[in-house]
Amino acid sequence: MAGLKELRTRIESIKSTQKITSAMKMVAASKFRRAQLTLEKSELFQKMMIGNIKNVLVSLKQEAAEKGVSYMLPKMLVQPKNPKVYALFVLASDRGLCGSYNSQIAKEAKRRIDELHKEGKRTVVFCYGKKGLSGLKRLGVTEIEGSYPNVIKKHLTYEEAMSFLHDVWNKKEQYGADICEIVYSDFLSGLSRTLVSKQVIPFDIATAPEDESLNRVGDAFYGYLPDKLGLLQKLSRVYMRTAMFEILINSQASEHAARMSSMDNANRNARDMISSLTFKYNSLRQSAITTELTEIVAGAEAM
């Protein structure tokens, strides 16, 4: 059994660690709130962009049916008929101390890779984040073509999202990928996240409803200047940028939420350990005092 000095040293050590985890929790909470507010603002804009693109697509389909012609849609909207090569971009963290956040992302990437291999597809993997790379290597993933740390800076900016989009597009062209997917943690709430593998290039707009009401507001129909195809090209570019921004901010919010939760658990565990060790320390101290008193009384009686 440890003596009084060892217990006292251990209690002080745990208290020092608790101060660090408490500070990290507060920092993560501050970053999380900022990311959450940014995410809430971007979601509305994203939904509006999707609605606008669907409006134009529905109008083009109606016009093509009326005129008996077919239009050549923007490249980033055209789904390949028989995709053979998939490029997977894994978004993880550069730092640890966030629970199972990075390991879960690595497992989701491995699951998606195995799923594509069963379908006879070829995969190339690009990892963003140091911890994601180590997680993928532990799982035996060998298709890693590149690793890039620090993709998300301290506070995500729109320019960083555009830079990430350009990097994804360039790697698609360089490796001849038919479809690009991003594996990341989609933020739901401070305690809830879901792992997704989202197709981003070409982005899937196949769910656009065949509804004529999308082409009008009330009783007034939309008008398009200069033309629908030109507008669709511009809208699809803006959508790609905002989609990348939303993916990155989701990943960032999920990481901060995971770290905040992990540090909160560490604080609780430290508090429990301090309470348990303090009880042992007091018991030993009381036992030592009682022993000393007993010896003093016995010595006095002997005299």
List the SSEs and their pairings.
Elements: H1 4-67, E1 85-91, H2 101-118, E2 122-128, H3 130-138, E3 144-148, H4 158-175, E4 179-189, E5 192-201, E6 216-217, E7 220-221, H5 228-302
Parallel strand pairs: 1-2, 1-4, 2-3
Antiparallel strand pairs: 4-5, 6-7
How many domain modules? 2
Structural class: alpha/beta
Which architecture of the largest domain would the CATH scheme give at its second level? 3-Layer(aba) Sandwich
CATH superfamily of the largest domain: ATP synthase, F1 complex, gamma subunit
Q: Kindly provide the radius of gyration, computed on alpha-carbon positions and rounded to a whole number of angstroms.
A: 29 Å
Number of helices: 5
Describe this structure in words.
The chain has two domains: 4-27 and 262-302, Helix Hairpins (Orthogonal Bundle), CATH 1.10.287; 30-259, ATP synthase, F1 complex, gamma subunit (Pyruvate Kinase, Chain: A, domain 1, 3-Layer(aba) Sandwich), CATH 3.40.1380.10. The relative contact order is 0.18. The longest helix is centred in the last third of the chain and has 75 residues, at 228-302. It is α/β, with parallel strands linked by helices and 303 residues long. It is built from five helices and seven strands; from the N terminus they run H-E-H-E-H-E-H-E-E-E-E-H. The protein is elongated. The strands form two sheets. A five-stranded mixed beta sheet has the order 3-2-1-4-5, with helices on both faces. A two-stranded antiparallel ribbon has the order 6-7. Helix 2 crosses helix 3 and helix 4 (158-175) crosses helix 5.
